[in-house]
Write a structure and sequence with these properties.
By secondary structure, this protein is of the alpha/beta class. 46% of the residues lie in helices and 16% in strands. It contains 17 helices and 14 strands. The strands form three sheets. It has a six-stranded parallel β-sheet, sandwiched between helices. The protein has a five-stranded parallel β-sheet with strand order 6-5-4-7-8, sandwiched between helices. A three-stranded antiparallel β-sheet has the order 2-3-14. Helix 10 links the parallel strand 9 and strand 10. Helix 3 runs antiparallel to helix 8, helix 4 crosses helix 7 and helix 6 packs parallel to helix 7. The radius of gyration is 25 Å and the shape is globular.
Length: 429
């Protein structure tokens, strides 16, 4: 891996390189995605099934698009019992963590005759996109569905691309059933996002769409935003490790590569105040590359977006981390908890040498659907909050309004909204 001494110029160049990975920069795909979305909106099932045949090479019809109970039962038989047990333990950890995020409605009654409050209501429906085809991502299934279920969403719809045989990956399907999906449809890509957003003859529309996908899925979510809510426009995965001279270089190298293997656009960055550690980690990376199965992808990722940044101090390391705002941040230092308090921008923070990033991907409980591409400056991980909406509650007695009506009328008249002022005034004629 390239080793760079971090200064102002190097930081500026790094941030510019990172931003090139933003899905919003892929304008060449926008017109294609918009065309797919428009056709599904206009033609419903006809366009949805045609695109499924074109892109996934699978025949789907109104009679077969929804996965039935028989296929779900078959899926359970095809999943190894050991994996099923692991998914169940992971599910319980995820559920336990997200249960702590639940919010209650609240009301504040005051002696002056006012009652103010907030009513928390689950969304009626949510659509979950899960990448599919040959691959299986049961962890993403659990991470997307369980917060919605904990929030109280009654209709949780999963869409995922089928294989060429038209069937859904059994591991994906089993995870969806375990997590509590109420409907599963064998469609994917931009066309599935459009179906969730606008509805078709076979797939009723939903209120919100969540879940990761390729560039077509990301741009389709952007295209339908406003017609429905979405979680975010997900970009490529990334990890940043802050480590001091006492860190184990083998552990650090392994953690960097755990994200670099996702795809060629993934980013893996080490920030350290030890040049000795930087060189040792680089050597360990070279060693791992000789044995890891996704070597070509990792090498391309590291060539484009892999860095070892050497800084003068841990304070400079924190500044770099906050500027990059990584999706995953590991702190492998003598006192990671002290350093953690200075971090403002990160999707998930992993503390200590035994809290490696895959722990969060699969098992610990916090959600692995995280803000990418620097959006951790203003976005949060997927949570129960994403599946509820809040309504303000306002009650004033006549006595309470009498004490305030002059102020309200003055405010309204200052804005030239005389009908607003009159709405209050008539109550005291």
């Amino acid at each position: 891996m390239r080793i760079v001494t971090l200064n102002e110029g190097a930081m500026k160049n790094l941030l510019e390189e990172m931003l090139k990975r933003d899905p919003n920069n892929y304008e060449s795909y926008t017109e294609t995605v918009q065309s797919i979305v428009d056709q599904v909106k206009a033609k419903g099932d006809e366009a949805l099934f045609a695109f499924t045949k074109k892109f996934d090479k699978a025949e789907v019809s109104a009679e077969t698009v929804r996965v039935g109970e028989e296929e779900i039962e078959e899926a359970y038989c095809q999943v190894k019992p050991e994996l099923l047990a692991v998914m169940k333990r992971s599910l319980e950890n995820i559920r336990s963590y997200h249960e702590k995020q639940k919010r209650n409605s609240w009301f504040d009654a005051r002696p002056d005759g006012t009652i103010l409050g907030q009513k928390v209501t689950p969304l009626a429906s949510a659509g979950v996109y899960v990448p599919g085809g040959k691959a299986a991502y049961p962890s993403s299934v659990l991470m997307n569905i369980i917060p919605a279920q904990v929030a109280g969403v009654e209709r949780i719809v999963m869409v995922t691309p089928p294989g060429k045989d038209g069937r859904v990956n059994p591991v994906t399907l089993t995870a969806a059933h375990l997590a509590g999906a109420t409907e599963v449809y064998r469609v994917g890509g931009a066309q599935a996002v459009a179906a969730l957003a606008f509805g078709t003859q076979s797939i009723p529309r939903v209120d919100k769409i969540v879940g990761p996908g390729n560039i077509f899925v990301a741009l389709a979510k952007k295209a339908v935003y406003g017609h429905v809510s979405i979680d975010s426009i997900a970009g490529p995965s990334e990890i940043l490790v802050i480590a001091d001279g006492g860190a184990n270089p083998r552990y650090v190298a392994a953690d960097l590569l755990s994200q670099a293997e996702h795809d060629e656009l993934a980013s893996a960055i080490l920030v350290t105040d030890s040049r000795e550690l930087a060189q040792a980690v680089s050597a360990e990376v070279d060693g791992f590359l000789k044995v890891l199965s996704r070597r070509e992808i990792i090498e391309k990722s590291l060539e484009n977006y892999g860095y070892i940044l050497v800084v003068d101090s841990m304070e400079q390391a924190v500044e770099a981390a906050n500027a990059i705002a990584p999706e995953h941040l590991e702190i492998v230092t003598a006192n990671p908890f002290a350093l953690m308090t200075k971090i403002r921008n990160a999707g998930a923070i992993f503390l200590g040498e035994y809290s490696s990033e895959p722990l969060g991907d699969y098992y610990a409980g916090p959600n692995h659907i995280l803000p990418t591409n620097g959006t951790a400056r203003f976005f949060s991980p997927l949570s129960v909050d994403d599946f509820v909406k809040k309504s303000s509650i306002i009650y004033y007695s006549r006595e309470a309004l009498a004490a305030a009506h002059g102020d309200i009328e003055a405010f309204a008249e200052a804005e030239g909204l005389t009908a607003h002022a009159n709405s209050i005034k008539v109550r005291f004629e």
